[in-house]
Amino acid sequence: MSKSIYEGLLDMAAFVLTALLAATGSQAGVAPTGQRSFYPPGLNHTTFISNASVGTFGGLYTAPASQAAPASPGDAYDYCSMPHPHAASYSLPPPVANQTTVSARLVYLEYLQRHQRRTPYNILPGGENQPYHCDNLHAHLYVAPASQGPAPIPVYGQTYSDPSNPFLATYVNGSCQYPQLTIGGFLDGYQHGRDLRDVYGDLIPSSPDEDGGKKIWLRSSNSALTQESAGGVLRGIWPDHNGPLPLHQQASGIDTVDQGFSCSAQSEILSTIESTPLWNEHLTVTTSLRNRLATMFDADTSSWTSTFDHFADNFQARLCNGYELPCRVQNQSECVTRAQADEVFRAGDWEWNYWWRNNANATRYIQLVEGLFIGEIVQHLEAVQQGTSELVYSHNFVHDGDLGPILGALGINALRWPGMGSNIAIEIWETSASELYARVLYSGHAIETIHGTLDWIPLSALLSILKPFIPEDIISMCQSS
Ligand SMILES: *[C@@H]1O[C@H](CO)[C@@H](O)[C@H](O)[C@H]1NC(C)=O
Ligand SMILES: *[C@@H]1O[C@H](CO)[C@@H](O)[C@H](O)[C@H]1NC(C)=O
Ligand SMILES: *[C@@H]1O[C@H](CO)[C@@H](O)[C@H](O)[C@H]1NC(C)=O
Ligand SMILES: *[C@@H]1O[C@H](CO)[C@@H](O)[C@H](O)[C@H]1NC(C)=O
Ligand SMILES: *[C@@H]1O[C@H](CO)[C@@H](O)[C@H](O)[C@H]1NC(C)=O
Ligand SMILES: *[C@@H]1O[C@H](CO)[C@@H](O)[C@H](O)[C@H]1NC(C)=O
């Protein structure tokens, strides 16, 4: 049977629409929104990097200079300011929301977050064409006797660039340290804390001093960045608190976060991981991009070209703090294009997924890098399980290099680079029948993993997922090669 003219026209219109959508690619219609942007189905493959029409796969990479970043639409992946639990999108676990299924209350929260946005770690070897401004923040560092006078003057570091310093020409002008939190990062942190207070206000003590401070545990790495973030986030949580708060840290030489303890087996297994055919394939598909950037920025060294860490770090710090992508200092008409930056970010995402999920040695790598800290979290959760926990709220200020392996241990379906302020909330719920359940949120939404969506699983099941990543004897594992 032949179609009517009218049906034919409809087919034609549908065809044109499909062609238009395909041609505009990720800019229109095709770009995934909301939670879908966290889980690119093609992330295991190097075509995710080389296929330019993937764009940013719905990810956002810009934020204003001196304001908090607006919440991303639908809580989409936002490298500059990752979504976090907030009242507008937070919902109770499905069986609790449906009160006929189960009645339960939140009894414990283990919260982990990366620091907020910042200046870069990596300055382009050929120098930077734009200054960085940080004079809108005071980087305080001083000591104060715990229980006697005198009180110190609260001095702060005021970074400046001395024109007579001959190294300035091939470094970066301005008033920042690299890295350091930016005003935008501080304000994002403050909003992050206010939103946690809104969502978890019934659980988090209204004062950190309640019960002599025994209900809370605040932990950070040794880096200034995580401490600087804590100051903003905790002010959002406790707007009326007066006085200082302890941020627990282990000694930097043996810290269990931020790769504090030394362990040669970590770098050995990383070289194994970075010598597979798949790893080399990702280098091959990015050869022309890596060569172009290396030439443009005098960056032809393996630390800049063997992974995308440095270029991605350098570019996001610009875009996430209200600046432009960099240009070559010696020729300001040679600038990084948005398409090049997008490819760098896709390659960065591919590498994070490869390191912590998609390589044959991922389990051992996670054990070596993050196993001790995973063990500390498991101890907190076991104390809740045994009914011996005085703590109700633990907040850890750490790094992407801590979030990545923990997300890998949880078995996340796809792992994009955990962006600024990315966070994991492990909620423990107690039912009216005294059973304990866990829900794990990643950047505000139940995490999607190889074990299913972790929106309501027995606490014992969560412990079974995590425990295989705790090393039995890290000291001998670190020594063996
Ligand atoms: C490239 O990406 C687009 C948009 O995600 C997708 O439709 C297309 O199938 C991809 N092409 C290849 C060769 O993977
Ligand atoms: C809520 O619970 C009832 C009783 O267990 C069940 O019949 C119903 O399907 C549930 N609704 C939802 C939305 O889960
Ligand atoms: C650094 O910035 C200052 C203030 O804007 C300017 O006077 C100076 O020329 C700059 N120096 C370099 C090396 O760009
Ligand atoms: C600067 O870069 C542009 C674009 O690549 C090029 O056309 C121009 O020749 C370069 N200028 C110099 C002086 O090298
Ligand atoms: C990607 O690889 C991981 C680990 O090899 C696997 O568990 C996962 O199912 C893969 N994801 C997809 C979408 O193929
Ligand atoms: C890494 O994985 C390969 C393949 O499964 C295995 O043969 C090798 O022993 C692993 N290496 C380490 C150090 O675990």
From TrEMBL:
A Pfam family assignment: His_Phos_2
An MF annotation (GO) of this entry: phosphatase activity
SUPFAM superfamilies: Phosphoglycerate mutase-like
Signal peptide (from-to): 1-28
Record key words, sorted: Signal
Segments crossing the lipid bilayer: none
UniProt keyword Nucleotide-binding present: no
Superkingdom of this protein's organism: Eukaryota
Family: Belongs to the histidine acid phosphatase family.
Full protein name: Phosphoglycerate mutase-like protein
Source organism (scientific name): Aspergillus ellipticus CBS 707.79
